[in-house]
Amino acid sequence: MERLHSSHPGVTRFDTGTARVAAVDLQEVSPQGDASADRQTAIMYMLARHTLIRSWWLNPDSLRNISPRYRPYHNERLKEIREIPKRLCYDEFHRTANSFAVRAQLIRDVREGRKWGVQIVLASQLLNDFSADMVDLATGIWVCGSTASERAIQELGDKFSLSETARWVARYRLTGPKPSGSPVLLILSTTEGRYEQHLVNTLGPIELWAFSTSAEDVVIRTKLYEKVGAVRARRLLATLFPGGTARHEIRRRIVIRTERGELSTNAQQAVMQEMVDELAAYVTREVLDGVLEVEKRAAAEKAKEIDPDKTTKKRDYAGSNSRASGTPR
Question: How many CB atoms sit inside 10 A of residue 11's CB?
Fold first, then answer.
């Protein structure tokens, strides 16, 4: 391996342990282009698969190779793995277009995964990114959006034998994520029959900001993360922009600059930096006010501890009043 591929310069160790959720980013190591790039992409996908889910396919016979001293622990672990539902997701699946080994392994995982409690999820932008076998084996299909091309909509309807209502939804209702939610068309095959559902996936403002992929929002979110931290940044952005995007505010400020004659080639970058500075300053003031409030309370508590005579005098005064009035203490 070291001699064939420079991307494997030596022995590495990577173990997800008992993690419930794990993700591997292959963007920088899965190039596309010539045969060498396709071969490296295939290796990386297969290596990531092995690293993440190699324990999913183990059976009790595998315990024979383990020392009897540790066998009870691994036996319980295998039982737990077999009983837990498992899901393997491939995003940007079009990157495997020329990786035939990856796709062949995937088809086998789909066919045999059910008895192991394994679900396979594939995500890509075009219907042609999935082979005919993948489409035939799919039991749940989520259409998140469709192009303006009538040909693409017609191909989608013919491929999945959609009803006229579902075709209308694909043509007019799958408009992409909005503050009100993300519309999707679900095509579901079950033992009870086939279903077509038009659904809207809704999220709260914090989740919207955490998952936003628009270029402007990503820039503002990333810069604000660096200045005030991820948790404070998301909370502040969700409070000021509950729709999950700041694009309208960016455009509003650009229009104002244009009317003032301040438009420049990097107006958008300047506006986004201005917004980040304002938001960071707001957080700084908020934190400072909180620190001052804490210090003020601490000083008040300390003053009570230093001057206990006032408390004693108040208690004596209350006691004398109760004696004078005959009220039992």
Answer: 7
| Rounded Cα gap, residues 135 and 143, in angstroms | 13
**One-character DSSP codes across 265-310:** TTHHHHHHHHHHHHHHHHHHHHHHHHHHHHHHHHHHHHHHHH-THH
H/E stretch holding 142: strand 140-143
In tens digits, the chain (329 residues) has pLDDT values of: 445 555 555 666 777 777 889 999 998 888 888 888 889 999 999 999 998 988 888 888 888 888 889 889 888 888 888 888 999 999 999 999 999 999 999 999 999 998 889 999 999 988 889 999 999 999 999 998 866 678 888 888 888 889 999 999 998 898 887 778 889 999 999 889 999 999 998 888 999 899 888 899 999 999 999 988 888 889 889 988 988 889 999 999 888 888 887 766 678 888 899 999 988 888 777 766 665 676 677 777 777 766 555 545 445 544 544 444 444 44
DSSP state of 183: E
Residue 6: both structure tokens together:
């420079």
In one-letter notation, the amino acid at residue 72 is: P
**Cα 73–chain centre separation:** 33
Please name the amino acid found at residue 202: T
Rounded Cα gap, residues 50 and 45, in angstroms: 9
- Coil/strand/helix, residue 314: helix
Q: Which residues, other chains included, contact 219 with Cβ-Cβ below 8 Å and sequence gap of 6+?
A: 272
Note whether 48 and 90 are within 8 A (CB): no
Where do the H-state alpha helices sit in the chain? 35-53, 71-83, 100-113, 132-137, 150-160, 164-172, 205-211, 215-228, 230-240, 247-259, 267-306, 309-325
Spatial contact of 9 and 18, defined as CB atoms under 8 Å apart: no
Question: How many residues comprise the chain?
Answer: 329
Nearest to 47 by CA among 117, 127, 119, 102: 102
